[in-house]
Amino acid sequence: MMTEMLEPTAQSDPPTDTVLEVTGLDVDIRTPQGTVRVVSQVSFAARRGQTLALLGESGCGKSMTAKAIAGLLDPVASVAGGTAVLDGQDLNQMNPKQRRAVAGPGLGIVFQDALTALNPVYTIGTQLGEAFRIHRGASKKQAKAEAIDLMRRVGIPEPETRVNSYPHQFSGGMRQRILIAMAVALSPQLLIADEPTTALDVTVQAQIMLLLRKLRTEQQMAVVLITHDLAVVAEEADEVCVMYAGNVVEQGSVDKVFSHPTHPYTKGLLESVPTDAQRGEGLSSIPGSPPELTKIPAGCVYQDRCPLASAICRQERPLLRDTADGQRAACHFAEKVSAAKTDNDDANNVKEEIR
Amino acid sequence: MSTSPSMSPENVLEVKDLSKTFHVSAGAAGSQELRALDGINLHVRQGETLGLVGESGCGKSTLARTLMMLETPDTGTVRFEGQDPFALRGKELLTWRRRVQMVFQDPFASLNARMTAGQIITEPFATHKDLYRGTAAKNRRLNELLDLVGLRATDAAKSPQEFSGGQRQRIGIARALALDPDLIILDEPVSALDLSVQAQVLNLLNDLQQELGVSYIFISHDLSVVRHVTDRVAVMYLGRIIESGSTEQVFDAPLHPYTASLMSASPKLDPAKRPARRIVLQGELPSPLDPPSGCRFRTRCWKAQPICSAERPEKMTRNDSGQVSLGIPGVGPGAGAHVAECHFPVADPSEAGLIPAG
Ligand SMILES: Nc1ncnc2c1ncn2[C@@H]1O[C@H](COP(=O)(O)OP(=O)(O)OP(=O)(O)O)[C@@H](O)[C@H]1O
Ligand SMILES: Nc1ncnc2c1ncn2[C@@H]1O[C@H](COP(=O)(O)OP(=O)(O)O)[C@@H](O)[C@H]1O
Ligand code: SF4
Ligand code: SF4
Ligand SMILES: [Mg+2]
Ligand SMILES: [Mg+2]
C-alpha cells in the first residue's frame, strides 16, 4: 500500500516511570572572551513510553543539553553542575568506560547534523552491525542479520541487498532512518532525537515521525525530542520544556502549556505561528532577537523583548515556579501573562535598538 | 515595444510551456538528460503573491533562476509585461532586468561580508547608472530604502556580520527593492530565520506589497507560511506544476492527491485543525533522471490506478459549484481557475481525511 492512515496525535498514556531525571544542569563553554554559561539550571524528567520536547529557537542550548546528557560535549564545553540520572545512575559521575557501557543499551542519540554523521567508507550493514559486535559479541554474520532486521524495522525497502550499500547511495530521508536504526539498535531506554526532521521535506518528516512513534511504543522508550517547530511539539510530545537563552522558561504538559502559556515568551512564540485565513492581516511578532550568550542581562533573560518587563525584571532573575497544576514558568508576572498583549506595537518600533 | 495581445492586462508575468533540461554527466555512459522543468505554465498578477511549493529538488529554484534569466529555457515563453526578456538586448535588457529582482534563502551566505550594508543595498545602482544620478540622489534613495525595511540610517555603515539574521534579510530585501521592481522572487526568504524573527520579516513583506504594489513569487516549503502570505499557489512535483488555484482552493479542497498528502502531512499547532486521518506517503521521490511513465506521482499515489502508469493525466478544472471537468475553461491562461493534472482528482476534502475529526 502506498499510504498509511493514522491518528495525527501521538500523545500517550498517563505518566509512568521516570527513565531520565535531569536536575539543575549547567553547561559552560570556554571562549576567548572567557567562560560562557550556555545551559543554566535545566531540569526535566523523561518518562517511559512518552515524548518530552525541548523547544526553542536556534542557539538557545537544546543541543548542548542533549550532548551534555549523552556525554558527547565538544572539548570546549563542560558540565558545570547538576545531575542526569538514568536508571538510578548519574551519567555526569560516570567515567568514560561506564559511559560506553551505557551508550547503546541505555541511551541512543540521533544528532542534528545527522546527514553527515555516517561514515562514507563503510557499508550501512557494517555501521549498523557494529553495536551488536561491541555490546553483544555478535559474529560478523549475526551482526549482518541484525542489521538487516533493523533496516526492515525502520522501513528501508529490500534490506537484504541494501545492507551492502554505502551512505551516499541513500536519500536524506533514508539516511535519517538508518541513523534512527543505529540509535535504537540495542533497544535503549532513552532516545534523544535532535531536530530529526529539520532538513527533510514535510512528506518525509511525516514518515520519520510515524517511525519514531512506532519505535517508542514497541520498545517503551522514553523519547527526548529536540525541535524548534511548535506544531511538531503539539502533535508528537506529551511534555515540553520551552528554552530561551540557555534557560528553561516554561515547562509542563503540552496541552496545558500550549493552551494556557504562563510565560510571555511561550505566548509570543505561539502567536507568531502563521495560521489560516489571515492573508494580509499581519502576524503578531516578538520584537528584537535572542540575546548573544555573552550578553545575557542580569535579571530576567527575556527582559529585552518582553512587553511585561518592569523594574524588578531587570534586577531579579525569576525562578521556575508552579504557575498552574503541572505547569511551571520563570516569570515574575506569570499570573498576568494570559491577559497580556504580547504583540506590543511600541516595542516593534524600537526593535532595531535591541540587539 | 508592443504588448502581446494575448496577455491579460493585469498580469505582470506570464509563463507558457517552459521547459529546462540539464545535461548531467553519467560517467562512461556520456551524459544524461535531467528535465528540471517540464511544461510550466503560470501567471502573476500585479500586486499579488503567487506561492510555489513542492519537495526539495522539484524545480522551484530552477524556475526562479530561469525567470531571472540566470538559466536559458529549452522551450516555452516568458512574457514580462508583454515583453519576452530572452529576446531583449542591450539597453532594453538592462531596463527589463531592474523590473524583476530576487531575495535568496540564506541572508548570511548571500551578502558580501566585505561590503557595508549601504554598499550592498546600492550596488545595483552601478549597473543602472541613469536611475539615480549623483551621490545626493543615491543617498536619498538609500535612506528611503533603509526606512522602508525598518533599518536606521546609521545601519548603512555597518557590515553584514554586525546584523542578526532577520536584519540581514531586511538588507537583502532593501537591495531587491533598490531599483523599484515590479516583481520580486523570494526563494525561501524566511526559512533560515527563527520563528519570532520570521514573523517580523513576513509582516515587512506584506506592508511593502501594500505600499508599493509589488508582486511576489514566494517559494517556501513551510505550508503554514505559504497559506498565510499568498493569494494563489502552484504545487510542483518533479518539474511540473501539478495543481494551481487560489490559496483557499488549494489548501482547503486540494484536487491532486499529492497536494492532499502535503496538506495532510504538514503538522498543525491547533488540535482542532488536525486532519481526521493522516496520509503518510510511502517511498521516495523518484529520480528526476528517470521519472515514472504516465503520471509522475503514481509511484507514491494513494489513488493510483493502472491507467496512471500508461497515460499522462490531462488538466482538470473544478468550477465554482464544485464540479470537476476536463480542460481549462474561461478566458486567459486559467485566470483564477483551480486546476490539477490527475486522472482521479480528489472529490472532496473528506476523501483525503482532511476534515478535522472534532
Ligand atoms: N545546474 C544544474 N545541473 C544539473 N542539475 C541541476 C542543476 N540545477 C538544478 N538541477 C537539478 O534540477 C532539479 C531541480 O532543482 P531545484 O534546485 O530547482 O530544486 P528546488 O525545488 O529548488 O529544491 P529545494 O527545495 O531543495 O531548493 C534537481 O533534480 C536538481 O538536482
Ligand atoms: N563548539 C562550540 N563552541 C562554542 N560555542 C558553541 C559550540 N557549540 C555550541 N555553542 C554555542 O552554545 C549555544 C547553544 O548551542 P546549541 O545547544 O547548539 O543550540 P540549539 O538550541 O540551537 O541546539 C549557542 O550560543 C552556540 O553558539
Ligand atoms: S520576569 Fe519580567 S521580563 Fe521576564 S518574562 Fe516575566 S515579565 Fe517578562
Ligand atoms: S493520475 Fe493517478 S497516479 Fe497520478 S495523481 Fe492522479 S490518481 Fe494519482
Ligand atoms: Mg541544535
Ligand atoms: Mg531551491
Question: How would you summarize what this structure contains?
Answer:
The complex is a heterodimer of chains A (355) and B (358). Chain A has 355 residues and is α/β, with parallel strands linked by helices.
Detail the topology: elements first, then pairings.
The complex is a heterodimer of chains A (about 350) and B (about 350).
Chain A: E1 3-6, E2 18-31, E3 34-47, E4 51-55, H1 62-70, E5 77-86, E6 89-90, H2 96-102, E7 107-110, H3 124-136, H4 140-153, H5 159-162, H6 172-184, E8 190-194, H7 202-219, E9 222-227, H8 230-236, E10 239-244, E11 247-253, H9 254-259, H10 264-272, H11 311-315, E12 321-324, E13 327-329, H12 334-337, H13 345-349
Parallel strand pairs in A: 4-9, 4-10, 7-8, 8-9
Antiparallel strand pairs in A: 2-3, 2-5, 5-6, 10-11, 11-13, 12-13
Helix pairs in contact in A: 3-4, 6-7
Chain B: E1 11-25, E2 31-45, E3 49-53, H1 60-67, E4 75-80, H2 90-97, E5 100-103, H3 117-127, H4 134-148, H5 165-177, E6 183-187, H6 195-212, E7 215-219, H7 223-229, E8 232-237, E9 240-246, H8 247-252, H9 257-265, E10 278-281, H10 306-310, E11 315-318, E12 324-326, E13 338-341
Parallel strand pairs in B: 3-7, 3-8, 5-6, 6-7
Antiparallel strand pairs in B: 1-2, 1-4, 8-9, 9-13, 11-12, 11-13
The complex binds adenosine-5'-triphosphate, adenosine-5'-diphosphate, iron/sulfur cluster (SF4) (2 copies) and magnesium ion (2 copies).
Adenosine-5'-triphosphate (ATP) binds near residues 56, 62 and 288 of chain B.
